[in-house]
Amino acid sequence: MYLLNRIQRHRVNYTWMIVSLLLVASLPFLLFLGLYLKSFLLIHDYHLGDLLFSKVWKPGSGKFGFYPFIVGSIWVTLLAMLISAPICLLTAIYVTQYTRKRFLRIMHPAIDILAGIPSVVYGVWGILVIVPFISRFVGPLFGVQTLGYSILAAALVLSVMVIPFILNILIEVFRTIPVELKEASLSLGATQWQTVKSVLVKKALPGIIAAYGFGLARAFGETMAVLMVVGNVVKLPKSVFDPGYTLPALIANNYGEMLSIPKYESALMFAALILLAVSLFFNLVMHFFIDRYNKFSA
Amino acid sequence: MKYSGKIEEKVFKILMVIATYSILAVLAIIIYSIFAKGIKALSWEILSQVPQGGYYYGKGGGILNAILGSLSLAFGATLLAFIVGLPVALYINVFLVRRKKLITLFRFILDLVWGIPSIVYGAFGFSMMILLGLQTSLLAGMLTVTLFILPIMIRSMDEILQTVPIGLSEATYSLGANKSELAFKIFTRQTVSGIITAILLSFGRAIGDAASVLFTAGYTDNLPNSLMEPVATLPLSIFFQLSSPVPAVQDRAYASALVLTLIILLVSLFSRGLGKRYHKTKINF
After folding, report:
1. Residue A239's pLDDT is what?
2. Is position B46 within any domain?
3. Are residues B68 and B149 part of one domain?
4. Which positions in chain B touch A128 (Cβ < 8 Å)?
5. Among candidates B33, B117, B214 on the partner chain, residue whose Cβ is nearest the Cβ of A279
6. Whether B61 and B23 share a structural domain
7. Are residues B27 and B59 both part of a single domain?
8. CA distance A68 to A65
9. Per the domain annotation, does B283 fall within a domain?
């Protein structure tokens, strides 16, 4: 019936497992090494500080200043987090503390669908709804002339995109807080809100910070949706109504022409390397943060 | 003091309700705007034809190339990710079950890899492609997407494999089975529904991601017919059509976005339905 006997099959399966495991475990290092080698040409010839903080981006004449892109990315990301952070926290508290379990059963599919919508579709939605909304209502409201393709538009779209991600973690965080803690607080005469405010949120604080950290890392690397609504203008944004440019958008927009100019490819790979480093850094820090917190609380 | 506390509680409760329902409202708005705009331009012609000459200036044709391209690319990538991912998830949960530190380390690495933006995979895939002397092709796109969905696949399988009770392993060992038999014959059967969910989740991610295939899969107006040739994908076809100045072409982009959204919704519906079905093989404790 079988080609191999039991022991041989075990060996084949075992080898298959080990090879796959090594492949997966080496992935972050492979990614880093690959991108580093590719961007070596650029790092070797330029000062790292010049690359990161120079404002001039003219690949044709060999000027690669990533500062506008980094600033654009930071603006978009922080603004998006500023919008979605309170919404996620309030919603997580509401669905875990104030509603019945049944409500979570409505909320979970909704979160799943939000998480599953592809980023291009978010981009289409941004162009259809958010961009006109900004150019017609929000801009005039603040007395600003804007096309709508702006830092603000990107941040709004991005804030919706990270909601399912952050919310999932927050709901998990609030659900794992032992119920005795809440009961003790309530039995001492605290109201529900006092319990939430001074017991639950305090207890969950490291988890909340970690959720925001993961969300931030996620938002920083988001490409297509941001690319479609941010405006893609290489200059330092002065207000949220200005168009901007982000690092992922830079990579995605220029893949066609990068082979024609020397060092251009290297520069784009360097942008990818920055993204990788930011993502790894944030995730590392947040993981250690959670680990420390778990040790203390246990 | 007491009074202001009550007001504070009321205010925050209202804020919480607003926040919660605004999330549901935003979801409704997204779905509605994609449907309302897309349904107008959706036609049988768009679904069943490849782009004709002058398609991007408003002439006839459809996006069949992108639909089939995306499906074949996502299918291939999911298959590859499954072949590599399943043994990893099983290894972590069967072979390393007593080595807590190693388990934590591997889960940590997987979470790190999961967090890496897809454009980074795209850039990496592109540089690997050049290194290996490949052209933009279905194969290159497939391999890149595989790397991108691998952590998602493994971690979701891992989540479900963790729930297998230790008693089942002990019973299996007591009957004389070895570890790989336990892994491939018992664990997989016990968690069929979860594994299918993981596969569908990864498939949804694979079909919806644009940034990783932008560099590697290329784009073509032909139907996919070879692993070594470029292939069109739905997200990119939406993106390209939307950047056209011709309104008719933009409308087709909205129709394409609707098609992609429908595929995603269908996949997520499937994974919910299937998860409930495959309980027959599961032993309850």
Report:
1. 84
2. no
3. yes
4. 33-34, 37, 254
5. B117
6. no
7. no
8. 8
9. no
Distance from C-alpha of B87 to C-alpha of B77, rounded to nearest angstrom: 16
* Structural domains of chain A sorted by starting position, each given as residue range(s) with its CATH number in brackets: 68-242+285-297 (1.10.3720.10)
Pair B109, B209 in one domain: yes
Binned average pLDDT, 10 residues per bin, chain B of 285 residues: 75 92 94 91 82 74 87 94 94 88 89 91 89 86 93 92 88 88 86 89 91 85 82 90 85 92 91 67 57
The chain-wide mean pLDDT, for chain B, equals 87
Assess contact for A132 and A229: CB atoms under 8 A.
no
Q: Could you tell me if residue B284 is inside a domain?
A: no
Total domains, chain B: 2
Number of A–B residue contacts, CB under 8 Å: 240
- What pLDDT digit, counting tens, does each position of A61-120 carry? 778 888 889 999 999 999 999 999 999 999 999 999 888 888 888 888 899 999 999 999
The domain that holds B190 is classified in CATH as 1.10.3720.10
pLDDT digits (tens, 9 = 90+) for B159-171: 899 888 888 888 9
118-157 of A, contacting B, C-beta below 8 A: 118-125, 127-129
Dist CA B129 CA B132 (whole Å): 5
- In total, chain A counts a number of residues equal to 298
Instruction: Report the residue of chain B nearest A162, measured CA to CA.
Output: B23
Say whether both B62 and B183 belong to one domain. Answer: yes
User: Residue B282 has what pLDDT?
Assistant: 60
CB < 8 Å to B122, chain A: 251-252
Domain housing B16: 2-41
Q: Find chain A residues with C-beta within 8 A of B30's C-beta.
A: 114, 117, 121-122, 125, 160
A276 close contact with B: CB closer than 8 A: yes
Range of lowest pLDDT (A78-82, A144-148, A288-292, A294-298): A294-298
pLDDT greater at residue A271 or residue A6: A271
Q: Which of B17, B18, B115 has the CB atom closest to A218's CB atom?
A: B115
Is pLDDT of A28 > 80?
Answer: yes
Co-location of B96 and B10 in the same domain: no
- The answer to the question of residue B36 being in a domain is yes
Together in a domain, B152 and B264: yes
Task: Identify whether residues B10 and B65 lie together within a single domain.
Answer: no
